[in-house]
Design a protein that fits this description.
six-stranded antiparallel β-sheet; alpha+beta; 326 residues; 9 helices
Length: 326
């Protein structure tokens, strides 16, 4: 019996690879496995409403086409149900997809859906009404996420430009954390609460994080002096951020945070005004998701697919250099 898949497309997400999604689905999605329907978001967080409607309509799989924010909306819509999440990454950072080894090429991401390999991963709840699949954070990363929310340009270069612009003036803040019942006070530039290992762009801020270990990885980061950036930056991309003298890491199931004076939180790459007090809880194996079967190759079936893969790779390199307008 075929499964019903609802594909939710954010038409303005990230860097634009989603624009050909209907043709790519028609040519590449295995229609012996899935009957599918495509719907487009029309406003911020509309994907949450569409996903919830899809659950009510009896869809078996909800696939998010977009970035981490689009994925987060789909998760919020299906949370608490047995519906399975699929991902076709077309955003900027694509942190969860990268962590799960889902290719950034839409053609190959669709091949992952065709593997029909369902598994379970953890999620994190925040104040009982926000859901995090990848990473959350307070401090500087939340500040940048808030600015990106209203930025006219998307992509890595736009993100980097904001970081460079805001770095000199954003100072460390005082936080009180209660980590599995143990209170500690810390001054930090930013603090992340990770389910996956990275922000996106392969920036692994929590290199030991696992999606199914029942724990949240906490990284408390001091403001890094300019003279140390040349050392610390490569550690972030070499999967060894824990080696920096400016980073302190913990693992926990339950975390309370007080002192979030900005009130903003980075939730899967999107800035959200959550409040001064925060409560993060790991929800073990709470999300059904289509995983990549690493033992099965994702080989294009025809020459046009191969050309599309080449195009995707060129486009991704281009978009890392030249920001895209929303």
């Amino acid at each position: 019996m075929k499964k019903k898949m609802l594909v939710i497309v954010n038409p303005i997400s990230g860097i634009g690879r989603q624009k050909k999604i209907e043709r790519l689905l028609k040519d590449n999605l295995n229609q012996d496995i899935y009957d599918y329907e495509v719907r487009y978001t029309e406003r911020i967080h509309h994907g949450k409403d569409i996903a919830r409607q899809g659950v009510d309509e009896g869809f078996d799989v909800i696939t998010a086409v977009g970035g981490d924010g689009s994925v987060n909306d789909a998760i919020a819509g299906i949370y608490g149900s047995d519906v399975t999440l699929g991902i076709i990454p077309c955003g900027s950072g694509n942190g969860l997809a990268r962590c799960m080894k889902i290719p950034l090429s839409p053609v190959l991401a669709i091949r992952v859906l065709n593997q029909d390999n369902t598994g379970l991963i953890d999620t994190i709840t925040l104040n009982d009404n926000f859901y995090i699949a990848s990473i959350a954070g307070v401090g500087f990363d939340a500040h940048i996420a808030r600015l990106m929310k209203s930025a006219k340009l998307r992509g890595f270069s736009a993100y980097l430009n904001l970081i460079l612009r805001e770095y000199p003036t954003y100072e460390e803040k005082d936080y009180t954390l209660v980590i599995d019942g143990k209170e500690m006070r810390r001054k930090s530039w930013f603090t992340t609460f990770a389910n996956s290992n990275q922000f996106g762009y392969n920036a692994t801020v929590a290199p030991q994080a696992k999606l199914d270990d029942g724990l949240i990885d906490i990284s408390i980061v001091d403001k890094i002096p300019i003279e140390h950036i040349a050392i610390t930056g490569p550690l972030l991309y070499a999967n060894h951020f824990e080696l920096s003298q400016h980073v302190e890491m913990f693992k926990a199931h339950d975390i309370w945070v007080a002192g979030n004076t900005d009130k903003w939180v980075n939730i899967d790459g999107e800035g959200e005004n959550v409040g001064n007090e925060l409560h993060f809880v790991n929800q073990q194996q709470s999300l059904h998701i289509l995983k990549r079967d690493m033992k099965s190759p994702l080989i294009p079936l025809n020459p046009s697919d191969a050309l599309q893969l080449v195009h995707d790779q060129i486009q991704m390199v281009h978009d890392q250099i030249i920001p895209k307008k929303k």
